[in-house]
Amino acid sequence: MKVIGIDYGEVRIGVSCSDDLGMFAHPLETIHVKKIDPIKRIIEIAEEKKIQAVVIGMPRNLDGSYGSAAKKVESFLKKIKTVLPEVQVFEQDERFTTTVAQKKLQDTGHTVKSSRQIIDEVAAVEILQSFLDQNGEYST
Fold first, then answer.
1. What domain range includes position 55?
2. Less packed terminus of the chain by CB within 10 Å, N or C?
3. CA-based diameter of the chain, in Å?
4. Which helix (H) or strand (E) holds 106?
5. Which residues partner with 108 through β-bridges?
C-alpha cells in the first residue's frame, strides 16, 4: 500500500511517501502554505503517487491529551477526508517527531539554517515510519 505522511503546520507542511512496498518512508516535499494551496497539492500528490492512505501527525501534549494545535490538525484532517473520500486517513501521535528529526539532521552534519528547509519533510518521515512500523499490514 502506498502511503503519504503529513507533518501539518500553519506555515509549512512536510510530506513524506512510502516506498512501493509500504515499508520505508522517504521525504517528498515541503508545501509552503502561503504559496501553494495545501489541500490542492495533497490531492495532486495522491493522484500522482496513487496513494491509498494518508497519515497525519496528531500533536499531543506530553500527558497524551489534545491541545489547541490538535484542533487545527483535526480540521485539516477532515478536509483531507472530504476531498479524498476513497483514501484511508489515519492519525499518528507526533510527539517528539520534530526533535527526533532535528537530531537526525544534526547527526548527518546539517546546520540549523540548512535544516529549516527540510525539517518538516524529515518530521513527516518520522510520522509515516512510526505508522508503518506499528501497522505491519500496510507493509505487505
1. 3-139
2. C
3. 41
4. helix 97-107
5. none
Helix then strand count (H, E) for the chain reads 5, 5
pTM for the predicted model, two decimal places: 0.84
CATH number of the domain to which 42 belongs = 3.30.420.140
DSSP codes joined into one string, 40-84: HHHHHHHHHHT--EEEEEE---TTS---HHHHHHHHHHHHHHHH-
pLDDT tens per residue across span 13-44 = 999 999 988 899 999 999 999 999 999 999 99
Instruction: Please tell me whether residue 124 adopts helix, strand or coil conformation.
Output: helix
For the stretch 61-76, pLDDT in tens is 667 677 778 899 999 9
Question: CB of 6 within 8 A of CB of 15?
Answer: yes
Task: Examine the pLDDT at 98 and tell me if it is beyond 70.
Answer: no
